[in-house]
Amino acid sequence: MADENPPHDTPMPDAVSDANKIRAKRLAKLGGPPPASTPSNPPSTSSTDPAASSSVPQAAPKQSPPAAQPTTASNPFSQLGMKASEKPASAPRINIKPKPAEPSPARSATPKSQEVSLEAWTDRTISQIFRITLDPGRTKDAHGHRLCFVSGVRSDLEESGSPLRLTPELLDSAIIESAQSKTEGKALDYLLGCWKRICRLLRGMHNREDPKFAVAQETRRLCFNYCIFAATMPEVMFNEEPHAENPLADHLLVDPENDRGICHDFLNEAVSRFEDDDSVKDLLVEAVEELSRRLSKMTMNDDYRPYMLAMRNFVRYQPLLVAMAQSDFFLPAEIEAPHIERISLLGPFFTISPLQGEVAVNYFSSHSTRDKGYIQNSQRSLRLALQTHQDELFDIANCFIKTKESREKILDWFALIINTNHKRRALSADPKLTASDAFMMNITVILDRLCEPFMDATFSKVDRIDINYFRRSPRVDIKDETKINADQNESDAFYETNVGGTNNFITEAFFLTAASHHYGLEAASARLSELSKEIKYLDKQLAQMETERHKYISNPMNLAVFDAQVKKMKDRISKGHCAIYATQGVLLDETLQARSMQFMRYVIVWILRLVSPSTKFPQGTLELPLPAEQPEAWKCLPEYLLEDIGDNFKYITRWMPHIITSTQCEELMVYCVTFLRNSEYIRNPGLKSSLVRILFNGIFEVPGRPKGVLGDALFAHKFATQHLLHALMKFFAECERDYQKLPIRYEIFQVIKCIWPNPAYRENLATEAQVNLDFFVQFVNLLLNDVTYVLDESFTAFTQIHDLTIELRDPQPEEDANARQEKEDKLAGAKDKAKNYMMITNETVAMLKLFTETLSDSFTKKEVVVRLAHMLDYNLALLVGPQKSKLKVENMQEYGWNPKAMLADIADVYLNLQEKQTFIDAVATDERSYRPEYWETAKNILTRFALKSPEQLAEWDKLGEAIKKTKEEVEAEDADLGEIPDEYLDPLLATLMEDPVILPRSRQTVDRSTLRGMLLSDAIDPFNRTPLTIDEVIPNDELRQEIQAWKAARLAEKKAERAAAVSGAEASAMDESQ
């Protein structure tokens, strides 16, 4: 008998037959018509079962295949993909059997004890888990939980003569009867609580060979089956109304540890059944879709955290994550931009933000009564909440990215968002036609973070960004985007050729992120600027409206309409201020901006390697100028790659310059200098000027950096000292036809002032001026144009202010109110004009002073020196001549106007050129403005106010004497020449020609120096306006020789006459003396 199996391992056939009969009988009842519905009780929120509270947590064991079920007319298990005839070999079977007559002598006591213990344990465990009982007198368990008396199960056991004990074979009947009793609410609420209890029990069972473990596993399997039944077919199984929406959605929002919540064990079990049962997968995906729909109606003001927690739990399960990515709602077809954030599966999760209108109003309403500290604290708290939310969004997105089967789907989703929101950067874009700032900002932040793994400090992976991305079926659509240096036809032709291969993830992420910055972060910043301007305008309108209220006092109806309009405008202004504060709060996130700056740094390095691949910047140094032949791929890139660099840096330097590192500054400086030096690489003038603006914004003084964030790099970096000044002067000339040339040149002047103290710049400039004289002469000519223009505009404005102020102070008796109002308007306009121009005037004159000191040869070339001298003489006459009183206005400092400082600067220009005879000749021949007495008056002012040192005043006297002497000589020569023949006169300036040339197309003859001066400003024939260069003119040597001969003859004739006159006078004197 020693080798016999223990009695409890050999099931009794009669007992097994009885249990199966009972089970089949109960399941057969399900084949009839659905029972009438009954109202459900409130769900129970039972506490954790103390019997299992001490169990050690561990992963739920893998479930065995389901046990075989008896065949019925309508088998509910077929929903789970199970055939009624299947009988898994490993399914545990607990049999009800009578006591054996003669147990084995060798093992008689132990098997009996085990059998009793196992059956009692099974009965007790099932009772505790499902809170059911076969004893009508037992209403509560040992922990005080209410028990449901399953009378039907007891009756079946009594009819079959089986022991009154609960077994897994009876669970089908017991579960249905208990759930239909509604003792713990709806069936799903009840069964989820049972599921929690059985899972806790299993986590505490470590011996998988123990028969109790098999009982618990079978109990767990059945419990899950009925949870699915309760969720999918409650009307069939539990006499409940069909669900109007997915029933798991509510349970996903509950804490997973709560009895009504969906725990990880449940999700693990569900995921394990995906391959065999699509209904489980569909149920969970539909639950997430339902959560997404609910969240789409919520804001950050609402309790959105449970939704985020549910989604974060779901994406931890790869099969479930893949199933979500395959949902029709994940990437809806033919969806419009504003609907993506509401309808797509992930959209509502990415929309939660302080930028939602309701949130902004909630935090920043009554802005006029809030102090600055309150607003800043509100912004800070919202930033912290948003940072936490964005961390969770990144966690979700990263799970999709890391899973191969879902990566392509989420990249397609990002691309859909970007490609449908191009209108966000349109002029006066309609917010109703695009996605919200809240949604797009979150998208940008998440894409930035997805790029972080490959954006290392050494740029080791930057070369993996494939330039052929846009020629290989790209996700990002740039067809309608303006290209860096190609028109539409050129770019279309370039992109028609498809390049083989596939795009790697780094390339996809890089270009998606670059586009999201343009349509997300930078678009939000641009909208903030537009909104600020709009609210400022509305504030003025409101103030104007409120002054007109008295007009409607007498008419109550009109007054009511007026008050309604005022209230409407106040509400609009209030909402606008709320939106401004909320947007500022989000944009002032230093972490966000630091990530953005880091990405722009990668864009810069990638761009510089593209145009100069051999240097491997930043490890190598770029060589300028760049190759004349530009890469076609570069020319056809979207220009927003460059635009966003400037916009991003502009915002950061204004609000948080301290986050910019010195390395980033150097890379940014190299980028700006490179494309200013090779401006032909960029087509858009505005894009070129943004490079100057980057440098200009970078030299603003900030705490700890008196030269600004870029000042040190611009001042001393070797690359800058070699190329910066030439690049700035080149663009100074290039922007001549830009309608904003004066503001651009003002910014250029500021940068030059920052670097000018470094002698290396001046030395390089002087050296280059010797070998590239024409370039510098052109620069000088344009600088003179600006000086002449801004001085004239400024002084004209001051004259108007002076005259109008006197007229308004002493009005005429017959002057009416309208005439006075007109004068006041003119005065206000003149003041604004003076303020705007004086800022540019001061800087332009300062630049003239700096450059005449270093480039005196360029300023004294024949083609420019006359204009320079006459301009200086004219303005000197205005400052010290009889009209100087008209430049005196009240509150001169308000306009930045200091006549003495202006006189000192102009005097410096004179002194810088005092050694150049061509300059002295040009001043002396200025018959319109030069007066020796003005020279003396200027000296007296310079002396009286100590504007110049004694040495400089001595030089001023010396220069004045040289000019006076030259003037006398010139006047004497002019007198000797007398009437000049018309054919010898320059037709443009009416002066005697020295080097006449014939224009090739108009065949007119002009002096070469006159033509050179004109071509510097406009390269056309002045007579027929056809294109013309100085190289095309034909020297008129015959006429030149004729003029020289005539001049020599006239001067000789006059000289002889004077000699004869002197001789005659001497002879007469001798005669008289005799």
Automatic annotation (TrEMBL):
Residues 521-548 form a coiled coil. It catalyses: S-ubiquitinyl-[E2 ubiquitin-conjugating enzyme]-L-cysteine + [acceptor protein]-L-lysine = [E2 ubiquitin-conjugating enzyme]-L-cysteine + N(6)-ubiquitinyl-[acceptor protein]-L-lysine. Pathway: Protein modification; protein ubiquitination. Residues 1-117 are annotated as: Disordered. Residues 979-1053 form the U-box domain. InterPro entries: Ub_conjug_fac_E4_core, UBE4, Ubox_domain, Znf_RING/FYVE/PHD. The keyword Isomerase applies. Residues 32-42 have a biased composition (Pro residues). GO terms for molecular function: peptidyl-prolyl cis-trans isomerase activity; ubiquitin-ubiquitin ligase activity. SMART domains: Ubox. Its main location: cytoplasm. Residues 43-62 have a biased composition (Low complexity). Belongs to the ubiquitin conjugation factor E4 family. This is Ubiquitin conjugation factor E4. It comes from Bimuria novae-zelandiae CBS 107.79.
